[in-house]
Design a protein that fits this description.
Length: 386
């Protein structure tokens, strides 16, 4: 960003803050004018900078890669809802068409009454803010999910257009970005849904093609079937054996469609097709995600939890033990969080070698992880319970 673009962007923000305080139409018109000027200035600055990058990339191709890897989306036109003057005490996440608000309870004070009053106050303030900003909420589409064994199942309310109180509906499962989240965090409903989708696609392939050679099968399976079983696996990685079996059974059934392989064992079919078990793929995805988080390649709120005081990822207390320099604490989470990502991925992460975890980029880490896990038992072998 050039100096001119920075000044125009700063002026746009100041005019927006002034309009929020005055609600004057003239201030809003000045903000619109400043916003257009800032947009043109930023576009011109980006065009000039990208032209400079293109010229330098002719002599150093790494310059372009560094530029693409370092791009970040900046949102600074509207003040953060968590700003002290807005008085939202609970964590709140806003998206284009969705908003999530969380209320956590201190584990030290289990016998104390829950902090439900604060959440109700935040709901009221947030609805008032949304109405003032012209993005009214629909209380009939809002839902509450209670997680935890000792949850008091408190009811919450919102105001309708006629100023009557509406009790927010309570749900035990809800789809969030394609993942069905349930109140027990078992994700069994999501796994069963994805298994049904994969089986439907697999059935269509079976009735469409009378014979499949390995090349055609791999092309169809990797593009149409397996994505249903892999999407966001770091979130819903199964804990129950029956869920693991249901996922693996889809791939076992699929590999039988290849001509000449139906009589071989599941492990032999995987070796012939150069596939791995789905359990191995989930463990590998966990390691890749953990590498990104530990090395800061993906955004993660490093602040400790306001209720329990813990961080999502905590370095190991004793660094003198055998292993690498990025070992993490194994967090014991009772209840629904017993199978959280940090819980089931930390053990495998701590077992990696120093050379693997100290890779310079994700691709190098993937290659080193593949070599290190070349003889891992879960790579081709899976023990079904039925």
């Amino acid at each position: 960003m050039t100096r001119t673009a920075y000044q125009k962007t700063k002026r746009k923000r100041n005019l927006w803050i002034r309009y929020l305080n005055t609600k004057d139409n003239s201030d809003y018109q000045q903000y619109i004018k400043a916003r257009n000027e800032a947009t043109h200035a930023n576009r011109r600055a980006r065009r000039d900078f990208e032209s400079k990058i293109a010229q330098e990339s002719r002599h150093n191709t790494k310059t372009f890669w560094n530029y693409v890897s370092s791009r970040r989306v900046v949102k600074g036109s509207i003040p953060d809802l968590q700003d002290p003057q807005d008085n939202l005490h609970n964590p709140t996440l806003m998206y284009a068409d969705d908003t999530k608000m969380f209320s956590l309870k201190k584990q030290r004070l289990i016998m104390d009454p829950p902090n439900t009053t604060t959440l109700q106050q935040d709901l009221t303030r947030f609805q008032s803010w949304a109405n003032n900003m012209g993005i009214k909420l629909n209380p009939t589409k809002c839902k509450t999910m209670h997680i935890g064994r000792s949850n008091p199942l408190q009811e919450y309310t919102m105001l309708l257009d006629d100023n009557t109180q509406h009790h927010i509906m309570t749900t035990t499962e809800e789809k969030d970005l394609g993942v069905i989240v349930d109140s027990g965090l078992t994700f069994s409903k999501h796994i069963q849904t994805q298994v049904n989708k994969a089986n439907s696609v697999l059935g269509a392939i079976k009735h469409t093609f009378k014979a499949l050679d390995p090349t055609a099968f791999l092309s169809l399976y990797k593009s149409l079937v397996r994505p249903n079983l892999d999407y966001a696996s770091v979130i819903w990685s199964p804990k129950l054996k029956r869920d693991k079996d249901a996922l693996e059974y889809v791939q076992r059934r699929a590999t039988r469609l290849v001509t000449g392989l139906s009589g071989k064992s599941y492990e032999e079919r995987l070796l012939t097709l150069e596939l791995t078990t789905l359990e191995f793929r989930r463990q590998r995805a966990d390691m890749i995600q953990m590498f990104k988080l530990v090395h800061g390649l993906e955004e993660l709120n490093p602040a400790p939890c306001s209720e329990c005081g813990r961080m999502i990822i905590q370095p190991a207390l004793n660094v003198n033990n055998r292993g690498h320099d990025f070992k993490l604490q194994i967090q014991h989470e009772p209840g629904p969080r017993d199978n959280s990502f940090t819980r089931h991925a930390t053990k495998n992460w701590n077992r990696l070698t120093q050379d693997t975890v100290s890779a310079n980029c994700v691709n190098i880490f993937k290659n080193r992880l593949t070599k290190e896990w070349k003889n891992k038992p879960e790579r081709y072998h899976y023990r079904f319970s039925y």
